[in-house]
Amino acid sequence: MRIRIVDAFTDRPFAGNPAAVVVLDDGGGEGGPGFPAEHHMLRLAAEVNLSETAFVHRLHGDARQEAGADWALRWFTPATEVDMCGHATLATAHVLLTTGVARGTISFATRSGVLTARADGDAITLDFPTAPLTRVEVPEGLAQALGAPVRSAYDTGPHVGDLLAEVADERTVRALAPDLAALARLGHRGVIVTAAAEDPSGGHAFVSRFFGPAVGIPEDPVTGSAHTALSPFWSERLGGTDLVGLQVSARTGRVRTALRGDRVLLTGHAVTVIEAELVAPLE
Question: Magnesium among the record's keywords (predicted)?
Fold first, then answer.
């Protein structure tokens, strides 16, 4: 069985966000048709130890019709399964397209409904649901955990499950060195920290970072799912529906966002950097 490491939301190796992708046989398994048992997938995700490992298999016949999609897709951090992941979906679409097993628009049945990916020139565009933003009181201890004042905070809804925190400026986002244990105690999947770009002529409208210690991800390099919340947040404030976000982690990555009502289009590049053979059985 092949396992591939793909850098997503970047056009060069060793940048963006690496994800592992495992394309499974179509046979049944304890984890559902085509999937191994959940604990086996989690063990492999922990072994790879990237922020996400994606498992995908083709759907046929009644299963395909019932799901309304051609492929079934699940995502695991080193600690748990998650409901939504953007960069690992981009990585999966990249693998299916570049290996020739899929063409055109690819539809995935996931825990967040049917998601699609299509080739967009030399990039790939994902179609994801827009995260519903609900303004909340800034949680007690958030500013202390981040080490910076928080201007406003928003809940991003059940599928994303994150807390979005707006801070003063881009320099504040870049300089964050948060208390990860304190962030994990806040009760969200992760914390998205964002600010407007210091120089909008630099090719991006806003910046962000993502911390997910509660699900085994101290800092995620580039978080596609977070941009389903960042897109409506900044579109309302900046007055445009098509924006570019720069995630200013150490690896960095750019996400082109296009708000389309209750959907967000996320566009980025991907590069395969490792192809390997899984020799231990994944049963």
Answer: no
